[in-house]
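The methods section describes the discrete structure representation at length, but only in general terms. What matters is that the chain and its backbone geometry are given together, residue for residue. Nothing conveys this as quickly as seeing an actual entry. For illustration, here is how one protein appears when written out as sequence plus structure tokens:
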Amino acid sequence: MSVWGKLFSAVRGGINEAGESVADAQALRTLDQEIRDADTALRQARGDLAGIMATAKTLGRRVDEARAKDQKDLESARAAMAAGREDLARQLAARMSQNRADLTRDEAELQRLQGAQAQMLRAVQDTETRIQTMRREVESVKANESLLKAQSAIASSHAGVNSRLGSAMDSLERVKKRQEALAGRIEAGAELQALESGSSLDQALLEAGIGGNRSSSNDIFAEILRTEKSQDTLPPAPAVSSIGYDPKS
């Protein structure tokens, strides 16, 4: 691949990465908006569910009242027949017929409402679970995105620090080499000055053991031995008698 081809591929790759980054950011914003829309719809569903539950409770109380009324009318009709009042028993039977028709209709409606209520309650609970799951996933993705950005920044900073440290180490090596060169020049100058003054010759003589008055520990110990030997070879001093000794003579 030519240089221009590689450059074009690199630019195209950068554009694709930038486009994907924009699309990902847009996807996150879309998910946020979808979550907000789902929350709004969920609140509406909860309101509708509350309305259904209230209607079902009202209808349930009416069914209970109708059942109690039917039971009371039945007992009253039996009492009327026992009292010989068939006419009252027939009237009660007619009222019970209408009441039971209404009761049958209300029971069917109550059963339908209770089924819808249970179905809607499950849908609301499932929606709440899905919204919570989606919200956690979006928050996790956002947290990971922030973490990756921080790690990328740290990596870039670390690379910059390494580069600066490398430059500093190079500078340090240059300083050390310059110092070594300067020390070499100073030492060479001192040697030249010693040659000019003749001190280097005296130093060489001393190192060869010629001239000077330096004595090593071995030389001093040999001198001590020689002194001891000379004292051993001297004749003993004559004894002086104290008899008839006159210090004035």
In short: The CA atoms of residues 41 and 47 lie 10 Å apart. The helical segments are 3-82, 86-197, 199-208, 217-233. The two ends are 131 Å apart (CA to CA).
